[in-house]
Please model this.
Amino acid sequence: MELSDNEIEELHSTLKGERKVEDPPKKPKSKTKRSTADIREEMINQGCLFLDFKTPPNTSSAWVKEWNAIAKYGFFVTAEGCIMPYSYYRKTTKAGDSLSGHIRSAHFFFNRTPDRRQLVNQFGWPMAEEVSHLCHNPDCCNPLHICIEARWKNWKRHYCGEKGSCDCGRDPPCVRTYTNPEVFKQQSTLENDAQKAKEILSLLQQRYPFVIRPKTWYVGEDLKSKNRQKRNKRQKKHEAEADKKAEKKLKKSE
Model:
């Protein structure tokens, strides 16, 4: 059986211990930006709830906008009381937003941001502030499940629960013993019933009042958004066709 020139060249390269240089992988084409309406529809199908919190006093208007930017997509409520935003705003999302939900929560509810200065105490322990998760769920943005504290205190919480309950000695105490985030994700269950979610979040309701909007709350707004998208798409199509006709007309005149 005769070999082709390419096969012979590849065989020679293999015998010499050389590797065939492959073309670099092509970059994936950029995806069209998804609309708020499309994301909300996906969130509703997955069981989200629209929690509308009363703005805490003295909260900066900029931080209110930050929070509303994720609240408009809805939240997932777990049986443990965790509140998780749309995946783009979660800490564990690789390609997520640089400002995660738990940071936005600290801004909105606590009206402050962590002090990131790389300071140490008299023992050399890191004192830069971080947002600690008392529930050990890095994606949670329930203000009762987070606090701002020194990095060494946050790290100490990772060794909480050896005796079956919070024993890290930190104040405020953890709301549950430490669990690996992946294990928590597998074990946690979502609650999409508004009344049951209110019962789960009863303590949160007392501290930070909120209402749960019906899932049809944004229907009118989303319908207008989709119609606007369709009009823009038609407009672009008409403009492209007009440009083609003008180009053909110009070529004929030449």
In short: The two ends are 58 Å apart (CA to CA). The chain has a mean pLDDT of 85. Residues 35-215 form one domain. Residues 219-253 form the longest helix (35 residues).
